[in-house]
Structure formats: structure tokens, C-alpha cells
Amino acid sequence: MIWGAVLELALISALIVGAAVLAWRYVQVKHRLRLFESAAEAVEDPMQVVRRGQRVLLSNPACEALPIKGRHPLPDWILQQLETEDERAEIKRLKRQIEAGAHAETEISLPLGEDGEETEQWFRVSAFPFIGKSQDTLWTMRNITLRRQMELVLRNEHKRFFDLLEHAPVGFYSVDGEGGFIYVNRVLAQWLGRG
């Protein structure tokens, strides 16, 4: 009889300890989830956590501001916006890399705008698979339009400079450390009998 009471007391104690451990774990997980949601809301770029089955688990406000109807996964929405098969192939490549468990990113152009005026905007789309057995992926879109515009301006200025250099009425050249010619413009090449 005493052994029965001891066994019953041990079983009740184990249940209480188990419940306390579960409650503590639940509070820890809930705290981590709130922390992650707060971090996602602080990020200015659109981001989403998507389960492999294409279920959206979390979208930040920047993602909600995109013209996505409902809670569609970001990669699917991007695929719908792309016009050429080459552009779509890039997003499909990202998805394959994610399925293989690797981080992936690409740069794409999307026709987005405000007040009914669409302009071409460039984005770096990145996908980060969660580590472990999770089938979740963090998708982000960073607007890189300004960077692409600056690169275009620099490329154009570079081309204009070399066109000017090539057609200048004087000879220009560049040599390496050993004195070998790296560049000779057309005028100097003609003067040297090479043009």
C-alpha cells in the first residue's frame, strides 16, 4: 500500500516536472518567435519566411506593401512579374539551390511603381534555407536600382573617356612595370607605323 502511494506521488511529481519543463520551453520558443518577428518588422526590405510547401509563415510590413494579392509566397509572386523565360529561369534556379540546402541570390528587374506609374526597378533576391530539418526558407528582396543606375553612369563615362582617348589628336599610351605597352591610342599607333 505504501509502495502504491510512493509510486503515485512519483508519477504526479514527474507529471508536474514535465509540465513545468514544457511550459518553460513554450515560453522560450514564444520569446524567440516574438524576437524574430520584431527583427523582421524592423527590416526595410521585403522579406518572407516560406515553408517548402509554399505556405507563408511570416511576412514583414515591407513585403505586405508589395502588390501581392493575399499571402502568396514571394518567389511565386516574383515569377508572375517576370516577362522573359531567362528571368524566370533565374528564380527557378534559386528554388533548386534552396531545395539542395544552399544559400542563393540573383539580381532581377521588376516593373514596379507608385501612383500608377511603373518604372523598372532592380532587386537582389536572396534565399536562405533554415538550418536543420526545417523546410523553411527566408526570402528577401533588396532594392538595388540606385546602385545599378550608378554603375550604368560609370560605364558610360568610362566608355566616353576611352572614346575621347582613342580619338584625341595627340598620342597616349600606358605601360606596365617592365616598360611593355598596355595601351596605345590610334594616333600614336599611326605615328609609330603600327596603325
Low-pLDDT parts are: none
Which bin fits the share of residues in helices? Answer: 40-55%
Number of helices: 6
User: Which geometry do the CA atoms define?
Assistant: elongated
Plain-language structure description:
50% of the residues lie in helices and 25% in strands. It is of the alpha+beta class and 195 residues long. The strands form two sheets. Strands 2-1-5-4-3 form a five-stranded antiparallel sheet, sandwiched between helices. The chain has a two-stranded antiparallel sheet with strand order 6-7.
Put the structure in a nutshell.
The protein is α+β, with helices and mostly antiparallel strands and 195 residues long.
Give the topology, please:
Elements: H1 2-42, E1 47-51, E2 55-59, H2 61-64, H3 74-81, H4 85-99, E3 104-114, E4 117-129, E5 136-143, H5 145-167, E6 173-175, E7 181-184, H6 186-191
Antiparallel strand pairs: 1-2, 1-5, 3-4, 4-5, 6-7
